[in-house]
Design goal:
The chain has 426 residues and is α+β, with helices and mostly antiparallel strands. Helices cover 55% and strands 14% of the residues. The strands form two sheets. The protein has a nine-stranded mixed β-sheet with strand order 6-7-5-8-4-3-10-1-11. A two-stranded antiparallel ribbon has the order 2-9.
Amino acid sequence: MKAKGEARLPFVGLKTKGRRDEQHMRSLIIHSLKMRRVQTISVVLSITLSVAVILVLCLVYGGVMRGIEVSGQRGGAQIMVIPPSAEKYVTDTELLYTGVPAPMYMDQAIVAKVSAIDGIEQASPQFFSQTLDQSCCSATSETRLIGVDFASDFVIKPLLPNGSATDLADDEVVVGCRVDGIVDDKITIIGKQYRVAAIMAETGAELDASIVAGIDNARNISRTTAGYENYWKKYGDPGTLVSCIMVNATDDEAEYARVLNRLNLIGGISYVEHSQTAERAQASLSSVFVLLAGAAIIMIVISLVQLFARFYSCVWDRKSELSLYRAVGASVSQVRRIIGGEIACMVAVGLVFGFVCGALLSEGLMWMLNDSSAFPFVSLDILTVLGIALGIVALFALLASLAVMVPLTQIARLDPSFAMQQGDID
């Protein structure tokens, strides 16, 4: 009749070399993990959550910071001059990072007044036509239509291939890199087909999901669009209006301050500074970063405690089992491989699940940010993502090594005769 412990231990051939030895080893590791199912699941779950939180932190925060950086590099304007009423509809971050085509219009005569200010080096008007949905545009997602004066533009041109575009014909547009619904280089806007002359480089902001036309063409589209008549009764004919003026000023701090003072003296306008808005966006993100970082640290500590709790005391708790391994011929190195294999399996499974959950959570969080706020976002490049993944793997490999270091040392002091004195394996 078999003893109770014998029935559970398919390991009597541990001293066999080669493939059979590896099969025995894997069998023992799986057997041990199954026998301690609750402990195994708790350790894997804590590692999964830790990895997911760290990955979300790196991907989301890094992507938004990269978006703000790219938006600053490719946004093209230091100052955005807007009508005062615009602030009633949208925030400054929404204006800079999403360019919401709210009903914000002012007389185009203001363009000349702004351009005449000493210290302003570039000034270019834009006209926000409307938001295009699937009923009036072949794009499958909501898309903005912006009119740009290409004669003075310095924002859109650098985003185009070769950085040059003198003007667009009435049947031509340029589109952002996230605009879809393009067939044979053509897109439909309010029942009319337009040729896509170029695709703009990624900016990380909602300009990526916008269609840009010549400013007069955009005005004509808005003039003939049903439902916009009330705006033109209120503000005047679209041909005499602009929505904003993109401005580049001198880099001299004193002169730049004087530019802002002179802008304040012009009636009927307000303005948004790109640098201040970016700083506020980064500051508002810092609270989210602190929460995520705090959660990541807590989860890492929990994982480390779980790993230590599982393996630090495992030699004492399982001394009869491990001693019996030694008694039937297992070497110290083989017993160490069993303990090391258990932790390697749990860490590996936790990493896989953690990466999957982290990727899904980061996508969901970015969808929420894009839907409810104005943070720009540029996905991190593949090498950076791989570097983050390798860093996370290295971190948990280090934690696992620390957790198993003492148990592996204790194994060498196991007395095989102890198994003979123990009637059963606990």
